[in-house]
Design a protein that fits this description.
Blueprint: E1 4-5, E2 8-9, H1 10-30, H2 32-61, H3 67-86, H4 88-117, H5 123-155, H6 157-165, H7 170-194, H8 199-210, H9 215-243
Antiparallel strand pairs: 1-2
Helix pairs in contact: 1-2, 2-5, 3-4, 3-5, 4-5, 4-9, 5-7, 5-9, 6-7, 7-9, 8-9
Length: 245
């Protein structure tokens, strides 16, 4: 009889770990420089899963009303801090605006997720993991949008001053930058939603199906989460630009 851990085969885990070790050994022989990147990525992935599992264990133990607002606030502040470390001009000039924009966007996503989950049992336990998943969808596109905004500020300053000197309003002079930033923010999520095989969405659908959700409900829930993440990303960038004007 095969040993199992709540439905996961121990033999399957051992086989996958052995195959992973073989792949690492292959790169150790062929490309040791790239091996460092692989090991770093694996370490980060394990750390994120450990943190996520620990948070979910705490949620199961302390099922209180304050869990959801606390997780929303901490998630928004953590994302804003991470972005400020990636883009140095934000840390110097607009960290407060970025925190406010992230908080508004995460709150909007959490509200849309709550409306989707409000008829389920223990919505307080389900919402934080769903919120984490939504942030993963949002964060990449927002990073690209902020980098585009930073680049536009650096390279279109003279064009902005020229338009203002010739009678253009602030909005009219800033419109090309706003257009490029919103476009850069939207494109990554649109590509993800339009890909025939998108790993994150497929894993979510499979996970919901394993958890007992019907295939139609799993697909519809995943699609709605993608729409919510798309709207929240655009809201975040729009608020950040508005607050930084």
């Amino acid at each position: 009889m095969i040993m199992s851990m709540e439905g996961i085969s121990i033999i399957g885990i051992v086989v996958i770990v052995i195959l992973m070790a073989a792949v690492i050994a292959l790169f150790a022989l062929i490309d040791r420089r790239f091996l460092k990147r692989i090991l770093k990525s694996l370490a980060v992935a394990v750390l994120l899963l450990v943190v996520t599992g620990g948070c979910m264990a705490l949620l199961n133990r302390y099922n209180s009303w304050w869990i959801v607002p606390l997780s929303v606030t901490l998630s928004a502040l953590a994302c804003a801090w991470w972005e400020s470390q990636q883009l140095h001009f934000i840390a110097q000039r607009s960290l407060v605006s970025l925190c406010m924009a992230y908080l508004a966007a995460v709150l909007s996503f959490a509200g849309m997720a709550w409306l989707l989950l409000k008829n389920t049992n223990n919505v307080g336990l389900l919402l934080p993991p769903v919120l984490l998943l939504g942030i993963l969808f949002i964060q990449k596109s927002v990073t690209i949008g902020l980098r585009t905004y930073q680049s536009c500020l650096r390279h279109t300053r003279e064009h902005y001053l020229y338009l203002v000197a010739n009678g253009a309003t602030h909005l009219e002079a800033s419109l090309p930058t706003i257009r490029r930033t919103l476009r850069a923010t939207a494109l990554p999520l649109l590509r993800l939603m339009a890909m025939p095989i998108q790993m994150g969405s497929l894993l979510l659908v499979v996970g919901l199906y394993i958890g007992g959700v019907s295939p139609v409900t799993a697909c519809l829930f995943t699609l709605m989460l993608q729409f919510a993440a798309f709207c929240s990303s655009i809201l975040l960038i729009a608020l950040f630009i508005l607050l930084c004007k």
